[in-house]
Amino acid sequence: xxxxxxxxxxxxxxxxxxxxxxxxxxxxxxxxxxxxxxxxxxxxxxxxxxxxxxxxxxxxxxxxxxxxxxxxxxxxxxxxxxxxxxxxxxxxxxxxxxxxxxxxxxxxxxxxxxxxxxxxxxxxxxxxxxxxxxxxxxxxxxxxxxxxxxxxxxxxxxxxxxxxxxxxxxxxxxxxxxxxxxxxxxxxxxxxxxxxxxxxxxxxxxxxxxxxxxxxxxxxxxxxxxxxxxxxxxxxxxxxxxxxxxxxxxxxxxxxxxxxxxxxxxxxxxxxxxxxxxxxxxx
Length: 283
What we know:
Blueprint: H1 5-12, H2 16-20, H3 41-55, E1 63-67, H4 73-81, E2 85-90, H5 93-101, E3 109-113, E4 127-131, H6 140-143, E5 155-160, H7 188-195, H8 204-210, E6 215-222, H9 224-240, H10 242-249, H11 251-269, E7 276-282
Protein backbone atom coordinates (compact mmCIF):
# COMPACT_ATOMS: atom_id res chain seq x y z
CA UNK A 1 0.00 0.00 0.00
CA UNK A 2 1.28 3.45 -0.89
CA UNK A 3 -0.24 6.91 -0.71
CA UNK A 4 -2.55 7.59 -3.63
CA UNK A 5 -1.99 10.42 -6.09
CA UNK A 6 -5.05 12.17 -4.63
CA UNK A 7 -3.49 12.06 -1.15
CA UNK A 8 -0.17 13.35 -2.46
CA UNK A 9 -1.83 16.19 -4.36
CA UNK A 10 -3.87 17.10 -1.30
CA UNK A 11 -0.65 17.59 0.66
CA UNK A 12 0.90 20.00 -1.83
CA UNK A 13 -2.08 21.65 -3.50
CA UNK A 14 -2.21 24.74 -1.28
CA UNK A 15 0.10 26.85 -3.46
CA UNK A 16 3.74 26.80 -4.42
CA UNK A 17 3.80 30.46 -3.39
CA UNK A 18 2.76 29.47 0.15
CA UNK A 19 5.70 27.09 0.55
CA UNK A 20 8.11 29.64 -0.94
CA UNK A 21 7.38 31.92 2.02
CA UNK A 22 9.02 29.65 4.59
CA UNK A 23 11.12 26.94 2.94
CA UNK A 24 14.71 27.64 1.90
CA UNK A 25 15.38 29.38 -1.39
CA UNK A 26 15.75 26.08 -3.27
CA UNK A 27 12.50 24.60 -1.84
CA UNK A 28 13.78 21.58 0.12
CA UNK A 29 10.88 20.18 2.18
CA UNK A 30 13.06 17.74 4.13
CA UNK A 31 15.51 17.94 7.00
CA UNK A 32 18.66 19.97 6.50
CA UNK A 33 22.05 18.82 7.80
CA UNK A 34 23.48 21.38 10.23
CA UNK A 35 27.04 20.10 10.46
CA UNK A 36 28.12 23.51 11.80
CA UNK A 37 26.21 25.54 14.36
CA UNK A 38 26.53 28.72 12.30
CA UNK A 39 24.96 27.30 9.13
CA UNK A 40 21.95 29.05 7.61
CA UNK A 41 19.01 26.93 6.50
CA UNK A 42 20.09 27.39 2.89
CA UNK A 43 23.65 26.24 3.65
CA UNK A 44 22.44 23.26 5.67
CA UNK A 45 20.06 22.14 2.92
CA UNK A 46 22.87 22.31 0.36
CA UNK A 47 25.02 20.34 2.80
CA UNK A 48 22.30 17.67 3.13
CA UNK A 49 22.24 17.28 -0.63
CA UNK A 50 26.03 16.97 -0.69
CA UNK A 51 26.01 14.28 2.04
CA UNK A 52 23.56 12.14 0.05
CA UNK A 53 25.47 12.80 -3.18
CA UNK A 54 28.56 11.41 -1.49
CA UNK A 55 26.61 8.50 0.03
CA UNK A 56 25.53 7.49 -3.48
CA UNK A 57 29.12 7.81 -4.78
CA UNK A 58 28.02 10.02 -7.65
CA UNK A 59 30.17 11.80 -10.22
CA UNK A 60 29.70 13.25 -13.69
CA UNK A 61 29.65 9.78 -15.28
CA UNK A 62 26.78 8.43 -13.13
CA UNK A 63 23.00 8.34 -13.46
CA UNK A 64 20.77 8.66 -10.40
CA UNK A 65 17.07 8.24 -9.63
CA UNK A 66 15.41 10.37 -6.94
CA UNK A 67 12.33 8.62 -5.52
CA UNK A 68 9.91 11.25 -4.25
CA UNK A 69 11.71 14.24 -5.74
CA UNK A 70 9.60 17.10 -4.34
CA UNK A 71 10.04 20.43 -6.11
CA UNK A 72 13.22 19.19 -7.77
CA UNK A 73 15.60 20.86 -5.31
CA UNK A 74 17.81 17.80 -4.90
CA UNK A 75 17.90 17.20 -8.68
CA UNK A 76 19.09 20.78 -9.07
CA UNK A 77 21.86 20.18 -6.52
CA UNK A 78 23.03 16.95 -8.13
CA UNK A 79 23.27 18.53 -11.55
CA UNK A 80 25.44 21.29 -10.08
CA UNK A 81 27.58 18.81 -8.12
CA UNK A 82 28.03 16.69 -11.26
CA UNK A 83 26.05 13.75 -12.67
CA UNK A 84 25.46 12.44 -16.18
CA UNK A 85 21.67 12.35 -15.68
CA UNK A 86 19.33 12.85 -12.73
CA UNK A 87 15.76 11.58 -12.90
CA UNK A 88 12.99 12.10 -10.37
CA UNK A 89 9.65 10.39 -9.83
CA UNK A 90 6.68 11.85 -7.99
CA UNK A 91 2.90 11.70 -7.61
CA UNK A 92 2.43 15.45 -7.10
CA UNK A 93 1.08 17.32 -10.13
CA UNK A 94 1.56 20.72 -8.44
CA UNK A 95 5.21 20.03 -7.70
CA UNK A 96 5.74 18.58 -11.16
CA UNK A 97 4.61 21.86 -12.72
CA UNK A 98 7.05 23.80 -10.56
CA UNK A 99 9.94 21.49 -11.44
CA UNK A 100 9.43 22.20 -15.13
CA UNK A 101 9.63 25.93 -14.35
CA UNK A 102 13.18 25.49 -13.02
CA UNK A 103 14.52 25.30 -16.56
CA UNK A 104 16.93 22.45 -15.83
CA UNK A 105 18.64 20.96 -18.92
CA UNK A 106 16.26 18.48 -20.54
CA UNK A 107 19.10 16.18 -21.59
CA UNK A 108 20.17 15.74 -17.96
CA UNK A 109 17.03 16.21 -15.81
CA UNK A 110 13.84 14.22 -16.23
CA UNK A 111 10.74 14.21 -14.03
CA UNK A 112 8.13 11.44 -14.19
CA UNK A 113 4.64 11.36 -12.68
CA UNK A 114 4.40 7.75 -11.50
CA UNK A 115 4.11 5.58 -8.37
CA UNK A 116 7.59 4.36 -7.48
CA UNK A 117 6.24 0.82 -7.04
CA UNK A 118 5.10 0.79 -10.67
CA UNK A 119 8.09 2.51 -12.24
CA UNK A 120 10.12 0.37 -14.65
CA UNK A 121 13.19 2.20 -15.98
CA UNK A 122 14.54 1.35 -19.40
CA UNK A 123 18.02 0.94 -17.90
CA UNK A 124 19.37 0.50 -14.39
CA UNK A 125 20.61 3.59 -12.60
CA UNK A 126 24.04 3.81 -11.02
CA UNK A 127 22.45 4.96 -7.77
CA UNK A 128 19.13 5.63 -6.07
CA UNK A 129 18.45 8.42 -3.57
CA UNK A 130 15.24 8.90 -1.64
CA UNK A 131 14.82 11.71 0.86
CA UNK A 132 12.19 11.23 3.53
CA UNK A 133 9.30 9.65 1.70
CA UNK A 134 8.83 6.75 4.10
CA UNK A 135 5.42 8.13 5.08
CA UNK A 136 4.10 6.76 1.82
CA UNK A 137 4.87 3.01 1.51
CA UNK A 138 3.58 0.54 4.10
CA UNK A 139 6.19 -1.77 5.60
CA UNK A 140 6.24 -5.26 4.05
CA UNK A 141 4.34 -7.24 6.77
CA UNK A 142 1.40 -4.84 6.37
CA UNK A 143 1.23 -4.76 2.58
CA UNK A 144 -0.89 -7.89 2.30
CA UNK A 145 -3.60 -6.47 4.54
CA UNK A 146 -3.26 -2.85 3.50
CA UNK A 147 -3.02 -1.84 7.15
CA UNK A 148 -1.05 1.29 8.00
CA UNK A 149 1.88 1.11 10.38
CA UNK A 150 2.74 3.63 13.09
CA UNK A 151 6.16 4.98 13.75
CA UNK A 152 8.57 7.83 14.33
CA UNK A 153 11.41 7.74 11.82
CA UNK A 154 11.78 9.72 8.62
CA UNK A 155 14.94 8.79 6.70
CA UNK A 156 17.16 9.90 3.86
CA UNK A 157 18.86 7.12 1.96
CA UNK A 158 21.51 6.80 -0.72
CA UNK A 159 22.17 3.56 -2.60
CA UNK A 160 25.26 3.26 -4.79
CA UNK A 161 24.71 0.57 -7.42
CA UNK A 162 21.69 0.49 -9.72
CA UNK A 163 18.56 -1.38 -8.66
CA UNK A 164 14.99 -0.64 -7.75
CA UNK A 165 14.01 -1.55 -4.18
CA UNK A 166 11.04 -0.32 -2.21
CA UNK A 167 12.83 2.67 -0.68
CA UNK A 168 13.07 3.01 3.11
CA UNK A 169 12.91 6.79 3.18
CA UNK A 170 10.61 9.79 3.82
CA UNK A 171 9.31 12.58 5.99
CA UNK A 172 6.02 13.94 7.28
CA UNK A 173 4.30 16.89 5.68
CA UNK A 174 0.97 18.54 6.40
CA UNK A 175 -1.98 17.37 4.36
CA UNK A 176 -5.24 19.20 3.76
CA UNK A 177 -6.67 21.63 6.34
CA UNK A 178 -8.83 20.10 9.05
CA UNK A 179 -11.19 21.40 11.76
CA UNK A 180 -9.56 23.25 14.63
CA UNK A 181 -8.52 21.09 17.59
CA UNK A 182 -7.66 21.94 21.19
CA UNK A 183 -4.00 22.78 21.77
CA UNK A 184 -2.03 20.46 24.02
CA UNK A 185 0.97 18.14 24.41
CA UNK A 186 -0.02 15.81 21.58
CA UNK A 187 2.55 13.26 20.43
CA UNK A 188 3.50 13.68 16.75
CA UNK A 189 2.25 10.20 15.80
CA UNK A 190 -1.33 11.22 16.53
CA UNK A 191 -0.92 14.58 14.81
CA UNK A 192 0.78 13.08 11.76
CA UNK A 193 -1.97 10.52 11.22
CA UNK A 194 -4.51 13.34 11.00
CA UNK A 195 -2.31 15.34 8.64
CA UNK A 196 -1.02 12.38 6.61
CA UNK A 197 -3.79 10.05 5.44
CA UNK A 198 -2.42 6.80 4.02
CA UNK A 199 1.13 7.52 5.18
CA UNK A 200 2.69 5.14 7.69
CA UNK A 201 6.14 5.59 9.19
CA UNK A 202 8.38 2.75 10.40
CA UNK A 203 10.69 2.90 13.37
CA UNK A 204 14.42 3.21 12.76
CA UNK A 205 15.12 -0.34 13.96
CA UNK A 206 12.51 -1.62 11.52
CA UNK A 207 14.31 0.12 8.67
CA UNK A 208 17.59 -1.52 9.61
CA UNK A 209 15.90 -4.92 9.85
CA UNK A 210 14.08 -4.44 6.52
CA UNK A 211 17.28 -4.07 4.45
CA UNK A 212 18.30 -7.70 5.09
CA UNK A 213 19.22 -9.85 3.18
CA UNK A 214 19.67 -7.75 0.03
CA UNK A 215 21.44 -4.66 1.35
CA UNK A 216 24.45 -3.84 3.47
CA UNK A 217 24.20 -0.85 5.79
CA UNK A 218 27.47 1.05 5.38
CA UNK A 219 26.71 4.30 7.20
CA UNK A 220 24.01 5.69 9.46
CA UNK A 221 23.79 9.26 10.74
CA UNK A 222 21.13 10.30 13.23
CA UNK A 223 19.56 13.65 12.29
CA UNK A 224 16.96 14.19 15.04
CA UNK A 225 18.52 17.46 16.17
CA UNK A 226 18.91 18.62 12.57
CA UNK A 227 15.24 18.03 11.80
CA UNK A 228 14.26 19.79 14.99
CA UNK A 229 16.33 22.80 13.95
CA UNK A 230 14.93 22.64 10.41
CA UNK A 231 11.28 22.59 11.50
CA UNK A 232 11.96 25.34 14.06
CA UNK A 233 13.36 27.55 11.29
CA UNK A 234 10.41 26.74 9.02
CA UNK A 235 8.06 27.73 11.84
CA UNK A 236 9.96 30.96 12.52
CA UNK A 237 9.89 31.95 8.85
CA UNK A 238 6.23 31.09 8.44
CA UNK A 239 5.28 33.22 11.45
CA UNK A 240 7.06 36.18 9.84
CA UNK A 241 4.50 35.92 7.02
CA UNK A 242 1.45 35.33 9.22
CA UNK A 243 -0.49 38.37 7.94
CA UNK A 244 0.16 37.49 4.29
CA UNK A 245 -0.82 33.84 4.77
CA UNK A 246 -4.00 34.66 6.67
CA UNK A 247 -5.10 37.27 4.13
CA UNK A 248 -4.23 35.11 1.09
CA UNK A 249 -5.13 31.57 2.15
CA UNK A 250 -7.22 32.04 5.30
CA UNK A 251 -6.87 31.69 9.07
CA UNK A 252 -7.41 27.94 9.07
CA UNK A 253 -4.41 27.23 6.87
CA UNK A 254 -2.04 29.27 9.02
CA UNK A 255 -3.37 27.76 12.24
CA UNK A 256 -3.07 24.20 10.89
CA UNK A 257 0.49 24.60 9.67
CA UNK A 258 1.58 26.46 12.78
CA UNK A 259 0.17 23.66 14.92
CA UNK A 260 1.77 21.02 12.74
CA UNK A 261 5.25 22.58 12.69
CA UNK A 262 5.13 23.35 16.41
CA UNK A 263 4.24 19.71 17.07
CA UNK A 264 7.19 18.59 14.94
CA UNK A 265 9.59 20.86 16.83
CA UNK A 266 8.41 19.50 20.19
CA UNK A 267 8.45 15.93 18.88
CA UNK A 268 12.10 16.08 17.88
CA UNK A 269 13.05 17.95 21.07
CA UNK A 270 11.38 15.29 23.25
CA UNK A 271 12.69 12.27 21.30
CA UNK A 272 9.18 11.34 20.13
CA UNK A 273 10.35 11.56 16.52
CA UNK A 274 13.68 10.85 14.87
CA UNK A 275 15.45 11.21 11.55
CA UNK A 276 18.25 9.15 10.03
CA UNK A 277 20.47 9.15 6.94
CA UNK A 278 21.49 5.71 5.67
CA UNK A 279 23.97 4.57 3.05
CA UNK A 280 23.08 1.14 1.65
CA UNK A 281 24.94 -1.03 -0.81
CA UNK A 282 23.35 -3.79 -2.87
CA UNK A 283 24.67 -7.23 -1.92
